[in-house]
Design a protein that fits this description.
By secondary structure, the protein is mainly alpha-helical. The chain has 26 helices and two strands. Strands 1-2 form a two-stranded antiparallel sheet. The protein starts with a helix and ends with a helix.
Length: about 650
């Protein structure tokens, strides 16, 4: 089985590199991307069926670092096998869908090659038993996300979103590097097994775990790093599905789960994680309700759902473990990839991503209507879909942390945020469904829905691309995607829908990933009903947009993320001003004294040169002649 684990990581990387080298051969690139994804999915299935429970699978050999062991091992256990299978299946569906969605894109080969590299980075994080390899996979994903988000580089909005994502996540990565170094120095090795075998509380451990939480917050979009993720919707829909579903934003949750033994022994780091997760899940779910663009709605939904599983890791008792969080990670991977690819399919049919244009178009969409219904229902946690089981397990784990695990205020905060998020999630899912598939004739007032900056009129496929980032609208020309969907692409989307229904069975091999509490299940179902009913009433029984009930100022602010982008710009300007001040002080103060000495010496030399006539005097000539005569006489008589 060791060679299976190695191939799971290596094959996507090779496919990406070969795809970049053969980018002029479109057919070869398509076959290579889809074929490799299929093989990797098969290998991941084999590992899931029979994981080896080994954490010493060799790769390149140990790095020769003095005083620090760096074995560069991989591992295979039930958790890595489950997550690797979910990642492989989602990547396979995305690659198949991309072949259709980007069939007219002249740079499609670069796109699918980058997807392969991205998948390799995530799979390396999943299969890593070494903190150095974890960091390598972590950074590969960051680089690939910049390429994928900015794939349509001719658009200023896409370039801005790509740079924003790269800068925000890389800023948080500084803390991640510090945290991993602290954990490695404490254990004397980067090998995960010795690192986890020293859970005793210590200042260096707290520093490392807190720094890792900050790094995870950047990649997962926790407050205050949340605003890059909605703007990342400027990238193509398959890229959005990849980043949001099973790779980049989920990677941080997986890293925390791997280090769970250490977090269970450190209240400070776990409390920070719980506070950030609680704030983010409620904040993002509330903003999702007000979005005017379907992709941005799904982006804020991702922030909220990832915060749910991180909240489970923050509140669950040590005895419960990581099962609830990892179960919801897998569930979210399936239904969120389904919703994003379904949104891309609908965009190709309608010609825009704004809800006002999409309103009512899902009713006659056939298969697409059913798969989107499954996706929204699973996201909302409607039984008996996979999302219901995993979300309720996460809620139940947080309740156990509150009542039995000694979680105290941290667990109480997470539980309250989870229950409120259940209501908000049901609300924004119901609102989106009532817009896309209204139960009756839509009131004309719905079609007059204003954009986030007061603009009116629907964005059509023939119109130019909208303004970047902060405006919140991302409708664009999608004429190259028009046409009937191919059978493989439709089957890929349908496969994700099937996984969202039956994927619960995949979780049976991971202990604790499915554990329904009767009380929490009843409470969750009741809260889902409340959120759906209130939204239905706010929409005048499906005749208008429920978000129109919100004050226009609140709605516009929510679409803009309540000024988060402005805060980022201000923070960047402050850092730039500070850098300029440091340069000025270094140039004009620190370097002033050496420069002054040099200038003084040069000035004195110039003055002396100007004062001298540059003509030898008679006395000097006499002295020289005398010295010569004495020397000659002495040598003659000697």
């Amino acid at each position: 089985m060791s060679w299976v684990v190695r191939l799971i990581v290596v094959l996507p990387a090779l496919a990406g590199l070969v795809g970049l080298l053969t980018r002029r051969w479109v057919r070869t690139a398509r076959v290579l991307a889809v074929g490799t994804a299929t093989v990797v999915a098969g290998l991941a299935l084999a590992q899931w069926i029979a994981p080896t429970d080994r954490a010493d699978i060799a790769t390149l050999g140990a790095l020769p670092l003095h005083g620090l062991g760096v074995p560069l091992h991989l591992l295979s256990d039930a958790m890595s096998a489950l997550v690797a299978l979910a990642v492989a299946l989602v990547v396979l569906a995305i690659q198949i869908f991309t072949v259709w969605y980007h069939r007219s894109d002249p740079r499609m080969t670069q796109f699918v090659a980058t997807v392969s590299l991205f998948a390799s980075g995530m799979l390396l994080v999943v299969q890593s038993a070494d903190l150095v390899l974890t960091l390598v996979g972590w950074e590969v994903m960051g680089w690939c996300s910049w390429l994928l988000i900015g794939h349509e580089s001719e658009r200023a909005a896409a370039r801005r979103a790509a740079y924003k994502a790269f800068m925000v996540t890389c800023t948080a990565d500084i803390a991640m590097i510090v945290g991993l170094i602290a954990l490695s120095v404490r254990a004397g090795t980067t090998d995960l097994v010795p690192v986890l075998s020293q859970p005793a509380a210590a200042p260096l451990l707290t520093l490392g775990l807190v720094a890792v939480v900050i790094g995870v917050a950047g990649k997962s979009g926790l407050v205050p790093f949340q605003d890059w993720l909605p703007d990342a919707m400027e990238g193509p829909t398959p890229a959005s599905a990849l980043i949001h579903a099973a790779t980049m934003v989920a990677a941080g949750s997986y890293v925390v789960a791997r280090l769970f033994v250490l977090y269970a022994a450190d209240d400070a780091a776990r409390t920070l994680l719980g506070v950030l997760a609680a704030i983010t899940m409620v904040y993002a779910a509330g903003l999702a309700f007000a979005q005017t663009d379907l992709k941005r709605l799904l982006a804020y939904s991702t922030l909220s759902q990832v915060a749910i599983l991180l909240g489970a890791l923050a509140a669950a008792p040590a005895a419960v473990g990581v099962g609830p969080a990892m179960g919801h990670l897998v569930s979210h991977a399936f239904f969120k990839a389904l919703l994003f690819l379904g949104a891309g399919w609908l965009t190709a049919l309608v010609g825009a991503t704004t809800l006002v244009v999409m309103a009512g178009h899902l009713r006659s969409a056939g298969l697409l209507r059913w798969v989107m219904a499954i996706g929204f229902a699973s996201l909302a946690g409607v039984p008996p879909l996979m999302g219901f089981f995993t979300k309720d397990t996460a809620v139940d784990a947080a309740f156990e942390g509150l009542t039995q695990g000694g979680g105290g205020l941290r667990a109480g905060l997470v539980v309250f945020a989870l229950l409120l998020t259940v209501v908000l999630t049901a609300a924004y899912c119901t609102r989106a469904w009532l817009l896309l598939d209204p139960p009756r004739r839509v009131d004309p007032a719905l079609l007059a829905e204003a954009g986030p900056v007061g603009s009116t009129g629907a964005h059509r496929a023939t119109e130019p691309v909208s303004a970047p980032g902060p405006t919140g609208t991302m409708s664009r020309a999608v004429g190259s995607h028009h046409g009937s969907i191919t059978l493989p692409a439709a089957l890929a989307v349908a496969g994700l829908a099937l996984a969202s229904v039956l994927g619960t069975f995949l979780l049976l091999r991971l202990s604790g990933s499915i554990h329904l509490g009767v009380g929490t299940a009843i409470v969750s179902i009741a809260l889902i009903g409340v959120g759906a009913f209130v939204t239905f009433q706010m929409s005048n029984r499906g005749r208008v947009d429920a978000a129109q009930r919100l004050p226009q100022r609140v709605r516009d602010g929510a679409v803009r993320g309540f000024g988060a982008d402005t805060a980022y710009v201000g923070f960047g300007a402050a850092i730039t001003a500070l850098a300029r001040l440091v340069v000025a002080l270094d140039r004009d103060v620190v370097d002033a004294y050496p420069r002054a000495a040099a200038v003084s010496a040069r000035t004195l030399g110039f003055v002396g040169e100007r004062a001298h006539r540059a003509v030898p005097s008679l006395s000097l000539l006499g002295l020289v002649v005398g010295v010569v005569l004495i020397a000659v006489t002495a040598s003659w008589w000697g």
